[in-house]
Structures are given as structure tokens and as C-alpha cells.
Amino acid sequence: MDNTYDIVIIGGGLIGTSLAVALRDLPYRVAVVDAYPFGAEKQPAYDDRALALSYSSSQIFRGMGVWEQVLTGLTPINTIHISDKGHFGATRLHAEQEKVPALGYLVESRVLGAHLHEAMAASSPDYITPAKVVAVDADDKGVELQLEGGDNIPKTLSCKLLVAADGANSTIRQLMGVEASRHDYEQSAVIANVTPEKTHQNIAYERFTTKGPIALLPMTKNRCSLVWTFPKEDVARGMALDDGAFLQELQEAFGYRLGRFLKVGKRTGFPLALVKSQSILAQNTVFIGNAAQSLHPVAGQGLNLGLRDVAQLVELLTKKEHTLGSVDQLNTYQDARQADREAVMHYTNTLISVFCNDSFLLGHARASGLMLFDRIAPLRRLLSRQGMGARFSHTRLARGLPPL
């Protein structure tokens, strides 16, 4: 077996798999290395975790040629309703105002992952799993990786470009000595699927409270994906409530726009922090997705930002003016991604600092701001474009075009 590649992708999650699919028509030999085979941990049907895809992400999948497959199981978001508990005023964003078929889409992680793995298999990169990277040796000629795994796993791989898509606790980042900063929000998120009495009508709700935001996003079978942010000290109590008490507290915090909440699935809690790689580059190496930045889920931006990482990297890899993995090539990528990354991180942090605050004066300012955004079209459009990922959608993939 020839263990020499042009590009090796570490991580077979949604971002790593998307990159492998997007590279299928480019003249590179590609390998994907993953610690766990796809489907190793299947989730129960009702409790499948849901993900928000922005309109820009739908265009990226369209450009990759997999949108028709991905459409299966999607729920379009036609309206976004943003409100602040205890204050008048709300902002409503509508797909028809933006002249798009949907502002975004909800998809179950299991469903999206299955479609992407099917497309990846058809594009035929070498899929090396289960395998763990235990050592990395990089110089200006390329990268050599030492692997541990089963009997059929190669002990070494070499490549010209290494792409780390292995998550917020990136092994590659640690092995290459790249530091990451961590900002603890002192919050935890509880995720579950809930069924409301009324039909959700493809409306996504973002409800801010002094304790933390509540997101209810439309899913199939009239379910809603719930992301409820608690102060860290309260999350254990919220997880320990029985279903009836949990739904009652959710009812009191959210209100009755969807009628009564009838059912809640399995709850999962996890702490929230901003993890930011101090550099998205190392020798012949680039970090993408959560390996580059892991965000608070308040605006549903993490996966979408990672897909724009993919789109930008693929755009660069279609160009012939740079040697694969060279300093010039990777610096060009870093410069192209800086504005988008910084804008999304600033946007997310601003939402948390402004809306998760019980200041009386700030509460009235928030209410006034929501009314202004609702009534002034340019402000509303700015907010819509941020959520849709349209501000930095300049690549061919993000415009729905194939990379070549």
C-alpha cells in the first residue's frame, strides 16, 4: 500500500467528511483518518441531535453536488422570531424578504452524516479507521504521521498538506504545539427534542432570558430542537427534573407561542466555552472547523463557519500559483478567513454579553433594539445576512457553484 498522499484529513466528522467530498473532482490523492468508524454510536430516533444549516451552507452543499441528497430529512426555517423575556419588542426575519427559499434548515446530525459518508465513499478517498495519530513530524517538504490502530491500519502516512478537522480538543493541535485559548462562559447547554401542542410552521425561535437564551428550532414530525442555556450552577438541577417539571419550567421561560409543550426526549448537557486556536496554521498544516474555533451555540454558527472554512480551502486548492502545503498557500488561506472568523466570534460574544444580563436599563435598551431591527429594513437585512452566512460567501462553493 502506498502511504504517500497529497492531502490527509484528520477527523471524519461533518467538517472533515465535507472537505473530502468537496475535493473529489480535484487532482489530489486524499486520505481521511478517523478514530471512530461512522455509526459507532447511533442515537435513538426521537433524540437525534439537530443542527442548523445556514442558507450559505446549503449553497456550499449545492456546489459540492450533494444538496439533493442532503435535502432528505431537512426542515426549512422560513421565519426567525427573536424576543427578550420580560420586555416588549421582537425582531422577525423572513425568507421572502431576503428572496431566498429558506433562511436556513434543520437537519439531524445522524442523517447529514450518513449522506456525507455515502458521498465520501463514492468519491473514493482512502478512509483509515479506527486510527489514532500519536506523533507528527513536519518540515517544509511535508508531514509524516505515526498511527495506532487495528491490524489493517498503516503505521505511518506522509502528505504535503495536513488538514486537522479533529474538533475542539484537536490532537493534531496538541502534537504540533499550537496553543488554544479558552473563554469559559460559566454556562451549560441542555439539548433535547420537544413536541409542542401547536404546529411550528417552520419558525425558529430565539428567546433571551436573564439566565440564558432558549432556542427552539423546527424539525420533522412537528418536533422542535431545544437548546436551553443555563448558568453552570443550575444545569445539574435542570437535568435532574422529571419530564413534567422540566417542561413546566420551559413553558414559564418561553411562553405559549407554540401552545403547551407535550413531550421531551432525552436531555444532554454540556459546558459552554469559546475555544480558539492561537493559529490556524502550522508547518504544512491547517486547522479547520472546531479545531480552529469552537463557539457558543447561541446563534448556531459553529458548523456553518466550519463549512465556510472548507469552501475557502477548496477554493485555494483549485489555484495553481502555490505549491501544495507551502507557507504562501497557507498564509493566503489564513488571510482569507480572518474577517469571517473574527466577525462571527464577536457577534456570538456580543449576543451573550448583551442579552444574558439582568440590568434594568440594558433590558429596555435591548427591547428598543429589537423593535428597531424589526422595523428598519437595512438593519433587519444586516441581521439576516449574518445569520444566513451571506456576508462572507464569496467562494464558488458558497455561491452554489462547483469548485472547478
Index terms:
404 residues, alpha+beta, globular, 12 helices, single chain, nine-stranded mixed beta sheet, FAD/NAD(P)-binding domain, eight-stranded mixed beta sheet
Structure description:
The protein has 404 residues and is an alpha+beta fold. The protein has one domain: FAD/NAD(P)-binding domain. It is built from twelve helices and 20 strands. The strands form three sheets. Strands 5, 6, 12, 13, 14, 15, 16, 17 and 20 form a nine-stranded mixed β-sheet that branches. Strands 1, 2, 8, 9, 10, 11, 18 and 19 form an eight-stranded mixed β-sheet that branches. A hairpin with a 5-residue loop joins strand 5 and strand 6. The longest helix is centred in the C-terminal third of the chain and has 29 residues. The protein is globular. About 3% of the residues have low confidence.
